[in-house]
């Protein structure tokens, strides 16, 4: 059976073929670039399409560009045999010339992802031209180029329609995320990589890895090696080398990995290896707020994280905290009284202390919105509030001067199977935010693939194509693409 990303490519290709690359004057690119100009000529694409980097300031020491070009060609060919004959005098595109100005391949948050893609109709040899400030803009350009190409089943050649093309593009938001959850169902490393592959087709750039939760703790933590005793089984674990491999695989594709540990709630699995993290043997959540050992463990985890996850942010959760175990446990209740705290005070104390630890390891922090709803004025100014409960929160967050990521569950939770692609598509992150300075505080949005009912067998077909609808709003302005999503939905009968 073909891999999930390959089947997703089949879906996207079928959707494009359903209306033609530019049928009826339409431009079928996903997400729609910022500026598009095109002609009416059809080019043939050489069987031996070449990559040229003449004039580029980027040395490609890690092979980021070379490998991206190889993947692009595979996407275009879709494993077809390209063995047709070129008609005499037909214009043939010999290759793609890529000029990257910056020599750096550091995937920092907010990296320039803009590009210019030109496909001329004259030249000898005839080359498409990509210009980008960074290699990550060039990766997006290659993705767009692949969408211009279609396989002609009669000619058995690759065609590129509606040339010449001039496309100018840059993303609307710097944060365009997808959450996966390996705590509710373990996802093998190849499956995680397949999700990363599929993200690039819609130019998503952050994989939010919800690694642990109350159900399981699958990741090796060298500082506290018994933590992964909380994994589902001996084999359902990720080593440090696995995590490094996933991060490097994602970076090669222009995707940052955001790691999450959810504290103080959603942490029952931590106590399997270290029972002293539980308030008591009969009341196991949230983590013990009264114990310095709790924060030593968090410090150890984040210290180990800092060697693996180089993204600017770490996610510390903070949602759905039922604090009743703290008052129900006599020693913790005594600690609360001694420190003049009630349960709500202790919740705030825990979140803020965990934030300080993360900052000490060089991270900015992301917390779920309950932290803002309960004590937003006390959060560190490096906090990004992750909206998930519903609408109306983002505008309050930015009015308070904090940054925000939008994932409201009524629209952008992929595990809500009754949530339609139309709802994903119409969910505008800047709703009711009109001040330009406040709009800048919306970093972007994220669709969430929670894992209670999703595993390796169905994660891809549950993510797509609805995630592609949401990707539009995070990459570009709302576009008139209803007909294209209809074809994506129809093509989903291919059963990714």
Task: Give a brief rundown of this model.
Residues 1-24 form the signal peptide. With 496 residues, the chain is an alpha/beta fold.
SSE map:
Layout: H1 4-19, E1 35-52, H2 64-77, E2 92-100, E3 115-119, E4 126-132, H3 135-148, E5 149-152, E6 157-169, E7 175-181, H4 189-201, E8 206-210, H5 240-251, E9 256-260, H6 270-273, H7 292-306, E10 313-315, H8 324-328, H9 330-338, H10 343-360, E11 364-368, H11 370-375, E12 383-387, H12 393-399, E13 403-406, H13 409-412, H14 421-425, H15 436-439, E14 442-449, H16 459-463, H17 466-475, H18 482-491
Parallel strand pairs: 1-2, 2-4, 7-8, 7-14, 8-9, 10-11, 11-12, 12-13, 13-14
Antiparallel strand pairs: 1-6, 3-4, 3-6, 5-6
Keywords: Glycoprotein, Glycosidase, Hydrolase, Signal
GO molecular function, one term: beta-N-acetylhexosaminidase activity
Signal peptide: 1-24
pLDDT averaged over residues: 92
The side-by-side strand order for the widest beta sheet comes to 9-8-7-14-13-12-11-10
**How big a fraction of the residues is strand?**
15-25%
Shape: elongated
Main beta-sheet annotation: 8 strands, parallel
Low-confidence spans: pLDDT under 50, at least 5 residues? 9-24, 486-496
The tally of beta strands, per DSSP, is: 14
N- to C-terminal distance: 10 Å
Helical content, roughly? 25-40%
Give the structural class. Answer: alpha/beta
Q: What's the Cα radius of gyration? A: 24 Å
Helix count, DSSP H or I runs of 4 or more residues: 18
Enzyme class: hydrolase
Protein name: Beta-hexosaminidase
Catalytic activity: Hydrolysis of terminal non-reducing N-acetyl-D-hexosamine residues in N-acetyl-beta-D-hexosaminides
Pfam family, one: Glycohydro_20b2
